[in-house]
Amino acid sequence: MGRRNVTHVSDFILMGLTDSVEIQLVLFTLFLLIYLITVLGNVGVILIIRLDPQLHTPMYFFLSHLSFLDLSYSSVITPKTLDNLLNSTKNISYLNCFIQMSCFIFLGGTECFLLSSMAYDRYVAICNPLHYPIVMSTRRCCSFVFGSYWFGFTDSFVNVLCMNKLHFCDSNVIYHFFCDIPPVLDLSCTDTHDIEITISIFAGSTLVVSLITIAVSYVSILSTILKITSTSGKQKAFSTCASHLLGVTIFYSTMVFTYLKPRKSYSLGKDQVASLFYTIVIPMLNPLIYSLRNKEVKNAVSRVIQKRKASKQLK
Predict the structure, then answer these.
(1) How far apart are alpha carbons 134 and 126 in whole angstroms?
(2) Alpha-carbon torsion 27, 29, 30, 31, what sign?
(3) How far apart are CA 110 and CA 72, in angstroms?
(4) What does the pLDDT look like over 163-193, one tens digit per residue?
């Protein structure tokens, strides 16, 4: 069998979600609406946190970076998906495909460790409140965020090195709506066993380590909450981490379903649905989960609006 190096491949074809023109128009409208809500929601969260001094705390510092990641995450995938839903030609260049994949892995890995940092923040706030300002100092919070980005970059860099070894022979058709790892590996005519193991080790380590950190944090939190005697105290303690727990559950359930399983069990339909959740839907849900259920954010919005009105009246 003849082999070509990936550097000779000019482009790939993204088959997308459906061949039906009518369904494509419906999906385009739906995804465009979701993307607009995602952009407005995440930009809004970032601006509110930045503009309101009372939200300059570790919890909202992490949340602002989560919103930035979700905004970037969605922007890496959704615009190209929208473009393919409108056009008959669904080509994506080799370079853009692997840039999309690298950014996707970088942002996904970063979000995993950022969510675990947020879980640790909630653990300190509930289980060790007296030492919270010392433990979650500005320097440590910045270190957690920098570490999250660094681990995300490491995952992405390893993926680039592995994917650079691939060779493609016949087909350049990707049966997905974006350049995800499993469908791209399926196109390779070379043995991908070692590459799959390497990618699985790094991706699996990212998911497992961050999940263990989150699980240990919440087991400690639950143990502390159960020791609280008053009902109001339990409700207040639980409300401080309920939004994060919900966001973590949605994010990790789809990621684990898609990636922590043998590639032979890859199912085009089921995995595409799961991919839709963590690439398009979850970035929209996170600002809703963290803001609509949060009185502090609602009060911050009111303060910012009142401050803007007062400044206009003075002018």
Answers:
(1) 14
(2) positive
(3) 12
(4) 888 877 777 888 888 988 888 888 888 788 8
Going 224 to 225 to 229 to 232, the CA torsion angle's sign is positive
Cα distances from 122 to residues 57, 246, 251, 283, in angstroms, run: 12, 14, 18, 21
pLDDT at position 54: 87
Rounded CA gap, 267 and 283, in Å? 23
The answer to whether the CB of 204 falls within 8 A of the CB of 225 is no
The model's confidence at residue 20, banded by pLDDT at 50, 70 and 90, is: confident
pLDDT in tens, 70-91: 999 899 999 999 999 988 888 8
Mean of all residue pLDDT scores within the chain: 85
Question: Which H, E and C letters describe the chain, residue by residue?
Answer: CCCEEHHHCCEEEECCCCCCHHHHHHHHHHHHHHHHHHHHHHHHHHHHHHHCHHHCCHHHHHHHHHHHHHHHHHHHHHHHHHHHHHCCCCEEEHHHHHHHHHHHHHHHHHHHHHHHHHHHHHHHHHHCHHHHHHHCCHHHHHHHHHHHHHHHHHHHHHHHHHHCCCEECCCCEECCCCCCHHHHHHHECCCCHHHHHHHHHHHHHHHHHHHHHHHHHHHHHHHHHHHCCCHHHHHHHHHHHHHHHHHHHHHHHHHHHHHCCCHHHCCHHHHHHHHHHHHHHHHHHHHHHHHHCCHHHHHHHHHHHHHHHHHHHHC
List pLDDT tens digits, range 212-267: 999 999 999 989 888 877 777 777 777 778 888 888 888 888 877 776 666 555 55
Identity of residue 131: H
Q: CB-based contacts of 46: which residues, under 8 Å, 6+ apart?
A: 64, 67, 68, 71
